Amino acid sequence: MDVSRVAVVIEDDEDIREVLESVLTASGFTVHEYSSGVEGVDAVARFKPHVVTLDLGLPDIDGFEVARRIRLFSDTYIIMLTALTDELDTLQGLEAGADDYLTKPFRPRELRARIAALLRRPRGHDTPVAVAAADALLIPAGSAPAAGLPVTAGAIMVPEQPLPGIPSARVWEHNGLRLNPSTRTADIGGAEVVGLTRTEFDLLQMLMEGGRIVRSKAELARKLRFEEYDTGSFVSEADEKVVEVHIANLRRKLGDSPRIPRWVETMRGVGYRMTPATTLS
Ligand code: CA
After folding, report:
1. How many CB atoms lie within 10 A of CB 46?
2. Distance between CA 122 and CA 233 in Å, rounded?
3. Residue 104 has what pLDDT?
4. Angstrom distance (rounded) from CA 183 to CA 257
5. Rounded Cα gap, residues 131 and 27, in angstroms
6. Which of 13, 117, 120, 174 is the most buried (most CB within 10 A)?
């Protein structure tokens, strides 16, 4: 169990910074606050926080650039703060590597809800990703877990050490795409997929676990909050939009086509699932 939770707040508005600080402190975080993007990036490198709240409009570099820089070395959970009116900003923020967003002005309880979701989320090197739901589902032929896969350093965060006493998660394989939850790496025909964020990786894993089972956007959004698929808790249109953007980013990084997908198939108006397995992969 992690006892020292760290948050980095990157926000140039003092009032908002205070609200963020008090909510995060009340949730048990040690909070480091910065009012510029460059200082914020440095602080993330230094403190390795669980969560970063990131304002879009900063005096030096903007929040998009901050997110991109952070993503070069960290898979910390980034919550972007954007203006209520600008959906485009939100989408660009997710594209730049943010996991979630809050629109300003926000209520403290909205932030608390995000934090609660975040705390349900296992950290990459702390907890194995649950694969229990996969037991009843198909595994494509030839996907026996490959022991001793080389762990390569890349933009994907790799656990520093294997966890003692925890069985290694299975490796998922589909049409030449292989996903290894224990190392949090993905490769296509042996070539590593670089730059997947933690959220994108998690979404891909959910879809691969499901195989041909369609996962609705609401289910995926819930699962990203580490709720079960079917709790029926409220998922807003905005939450579903977040899933859409993450899936679009995932596809771009895989080089997959939404129209003629090799891996992730869109079920229009419903959700996503994996494509049929081809015999040759
Ligand atoms: Ca600002």
Report:
1. 10
2. 20
3. 85
4. 26
5. 28
6. 174
pLDDT of amino acid 64: 95
Cα-to-centroid distance, 107 and ligand 1 (Å)? 17
**Regions of the chain short of the pLDDT cut 50:** 1, 125-167, 281
Compute the distance from residue 13 Cα to the ligand 1 centre, in Å: 6
CA 122 to ligand 1 centroid distance, Å: 30
Q: Could you give all domains of the chain from N- to C-terminal order, each with its CATH number?
A: 5-138 (3.40.50.2300), 172-274 (1.10.10.10)
Distance, CA 245 to ligand 1 centroid (Å)? 24
Nearest-5° Cα angle at 180, 126 to 53? 45
Query: Would you state the pLDDT for residue 126?
Result: 36
- Separation of 68 CA from ligand 1 center, angstroms? 18
Distance 11 CA to ligand 1 centre (A): 6
DSSP letter string, 132-186? GGGTTS---TT----TT-----SSS---SSPPTT-PPPPPEEETTEEEETTTTEE
CA of residue 101 to ligand 1 center, whole Å? 14
78 alpha carbon – ligand 1 mean position (Å) = 16
Residues 6+ apart with CB under 8 A from 44: 8, 52, 70, 74, 76
pLDDT tens, position by position, 234-280:
788 888 888 999 999 999 999 999 999 999 999 998 999 999 988 65
pLDDT at 142: 41
Distance from residue 174's CA to the centre of ligand 1 (Å): 43
Q: What pTM was estimated for this model as a whole?
A: 0.67
pLDDT of residue 237: 82
User: If 0-12 CB within 10 Å is exposed, 13-18 middle and 19+ buried, where does residue 148 land?
Assistant: exposed
